[in-house]
Design brief:
The chain is of the alpha+beta class and 160 residues long. The protein has 2 domains: 29 residues; 120 residues, Immunoglobulin-like (Sandwich), CATH 2.60.40. 18% of the residues lie in helices and 42% in strands. Strand 1 and strand 2 form a beta hairpin.
């Protein structure tokens, strides 16, 4: 290969690499969280993943969206105690209501979550917890999950 082509090839590879890194970083900062419902053998249901961590400093900048996916043959409901969704109100305005979304069989629904989260503390480092589940198919065993909202640079600490 000639000496003239090497720098051009190297710059092309670097440009492609940089484009890939930037696009990957942009996806990683997405404010959309995906939940998929699964029917369990005891006729109850579980929304997965069963634990989600949302950092208010980085994940709420452009709003918060939940993508709810129901690949099953039954209708399910995604309910989060303490969170609210934004819905179209009267005269083109926006209203909030408790986050409870019905998802038809083999369907997906995107819902916008209110940026004024819950009623808890907004102090730096505070971690709020919100339970989510399907109230139609809860069953005897708690198959619900948890959303942990980490405020202003706080961290989730685990005990080992």
């Amino acid at each position: 290969m000639s000496r003239c082509r090497r720098p051009v090839l190297l710059m092309s590879v670097l440009a492609v690499g940089l484009t890939w890194v930037l696009s990957t970083n942009q996806v990683a900062r997405s404010s959309e969280f995906r939940f998929v419902v699964e029917d369990l053998p005891d006729q109850s249901a579980a929304w997965l993943p069963n634990e989600v961590v949302i950092h208010t400093d980085t994940d709420l900048g452009d709003g918060l969206i939940f993508l709810l996916v129901n690949p099953t043959v039954r209708t399910h409901v995604f309910m989060v105690e303490g969170l609210y969704e934004l819905v179209a109100g009267e005269q083109g305005g926006v209203a909030t209501k408790p986050l409870r979304v019905t998802v038809a069989p083999e369907d997906s629904v995107r819902t916008v979550v209110s940026p004024t989260l819950g009623e808890g503390s907004r102090e730096p480092g505070v971690v709020e917890e919100f339970r989510f589940f399907c109230p139609l198919h809860r069953g005897d065993v708690d198959t619900g999950g948890t959303i942990r909202m980490v405020h202003h640079g706080g961290t989730i600490r685990t005990v080992q």
